[in-house]
Amino acid sequence: MRRLIFLAPIVLFAIVVAGFALGLRRDPSLLPSTLIGKPLPSFSLPPVDPKAPGLTSADMTGGSPRLLNVFGSWCVSCRYEHPVLMALKSQGVAIEGLDWRDSRADATRFLAAEGNPYERIGDDEAGRTVIDLGVAAAPETFIVDRQGRVRYKQVGPITPEVWTSTLAPLMARLKSE
Question: CA separation (Å) from 41 to 72, 119, 131, 138, 148?
Fold first, then answer.
């Protein structure tokens, strides 16, 4: 009986170490989305700029595949990602913006200073649409096919490497479908 009491903490410690070791092998940036292969949730957002159109889920269908980028002027990683989005716009990539938990004035100032890579921008000041999309933190970007289905979710900023290795090949494949 004494041996069992002595061995129990050692066995428990070994189980905990094994659990941590398995956890370290997982990539924390890979957050699966339950939306992959499904249509975008229905939404209709007012514009950030009153002179421009807002953004609806219907805007994401037809035409070519597009990116839906969740951003905020308050988001440091979004500012890091912004030059890449501007470069993608200059290459003809269709990008829609979803401004999350931001004031319209702050978003307008940010886009005026840094440039606007978006075709349309929806204002999700209350943050309800991002909940439906399963967004954990900005920036997150969804690739949406011409039927309005989510095909991929990029968590974190789009870098040139991420674009070249992951997103561009998928966009090219979706354009040919």
Answer: 20, 20, 10, 18, 9
pLDDT, tens digit, 9 for 90 and up, residues 33-78: 789 999 999 999 999 999 999 999 999 998 899 999 999 999 999 9
- CB contact at 8 A, 36 and 133: no
C-beta of residue 49 within 8 angstroms of C-beta of residue 127: no
For residue 101, the one-letter residue type is R
3-state secondary structure of 39: strand
- Give, as one character, the DSSP assignment of residue 51: T
- In eight-state DSSP terms, residue 115 is -
Sequence-ordered list of residues with C-beta below 8 angstroms from that of 43, at least 6 positions apart, any chain: 55, 56, 57, 122, 129, 132
For the chain, the residue count is: 177
Extract the runs of DSSP E, i.e. beta strands, from 1-149: 44-45, 55-56, 66-71, 95-100, 121-124, 140-144
**Going from the N-terminus, what domains does the chain have, and what CATH number goes with each?**
30-176 (3.40.30.10)
Q: Are 37 and 145 in contact (CB under 8 A)?
A: no
